[in-house]
Write a structure and sequence with these properties.
By secondary structure, the protein is mainly alpha-helical. The N and C termini lie far apart (45 Å). About 15% of the residues have low confidence.
């Protein structure tokens, strides 16, 4: 499968359509701190989506689907939830975090060459472990969010069909090119090729922000955590009492 769809039912189809067409969660609008930009930024206020629960609900309701693509997604979700993926070696969501000593030696992080005390290294290692666990959870949530959203798209018939295997008309590339305008942030553009109802064709699925806001909110939350980690990490190597320090 393309697009990171993984090993890609029975929610009612109407429920899947509602989930796909759901409008973004309520948000608080704030003014940008940029005095010239004046841009208004929407900050999510709803609690995070429990993708673990959503995925289990999808698996339990799936039954025996006659849709090859949906069945593949459900099988992959069950393997992820139960930790029985035969193609996975180790924890596929784990984050290999460097140690405090590694970062202390990294001049891109420790630009001042500051030496940490033994106690500071211990505290920083604890912080690194905490963020490593948090990022691992977000990697898992992002994976589950993708799979659940793809299943919703299939049930809502939100896809473009293409032949299985060869693509003489360039359908996949055309869908990718035509979807570019739907993403204000190029990093968010996506296209997954998943199996069709049977093996005669595949389906190209594009998850768009206006149709799958909960999936994109999960991406946003992951980026927020990564930004927070970067700030927290660099603050350890500022002079004691410096701006932004601990």
């Amino acid at each position: 499968m393309r697009g990171g769809a993984g090993a890609t039912i029975e929610h009612a189809e109407a429920e899947a359509r509602r989930a796909g067409d759901k409008q973004p969660e309520s948000a608080v609008v704030v003014e940008s701190s940029d005095p010239e930009g004046g841009e208004r930024v929407a900050l999510p206020t709803e609690p995070p989506v429990d993708w673990e629960a959503e995925a289990w609900d999808l698996v339990r309701r799936s039954g025996l689907s006659g849709d090859v693509g949906v069945s593949a997604i459900v099988t992959g979700l069950r393997n992820s939830l139960e930790g029985t993926d035969p193609l996975s070696h180790g924890d596929p969501f784990a984050v290999q975090m460097p140690t405090a000593t590694d970062f202390e030696r990294n001049r891109e992080i420790n630009v001042l060459g500051r030496k940490l005390s033994a106690e500071e290294r211990k505290q920083l290692d604890e912080l690194l472990h905490e963020y490593g666990q948090r990022m691992r959870a977000q990697n898992r949530a992002r994976h589950l969010a993708l799979q659940v959203s793809l299943a919703q798209a299939l049930l809502a018939r939100d896809y473009v069909e293409k032949p299985n295997g060869s693509d003489p008309e360039g359908i996949y590339q055309r869908v990718v090119e035509e979807s570019q305008a739907d993403f204000s942030d190029p990093r968010d553009q996506n296209a997954s090729e998943v199996p069709g109802v049977d093996f005669s064709h595949n389906r190209v699925v594009v998850l768009r922000p206006d149709r799958y806001p909960r999936y994109f909110r999960t991406l946003y939350e992951q980026r927020v955590a990564e930004a927070e980690f970067s700030v927290a990490l660099r603050s350890w190597f500022l002079p004691p009492g410096g701006s932004g320090g601990r």
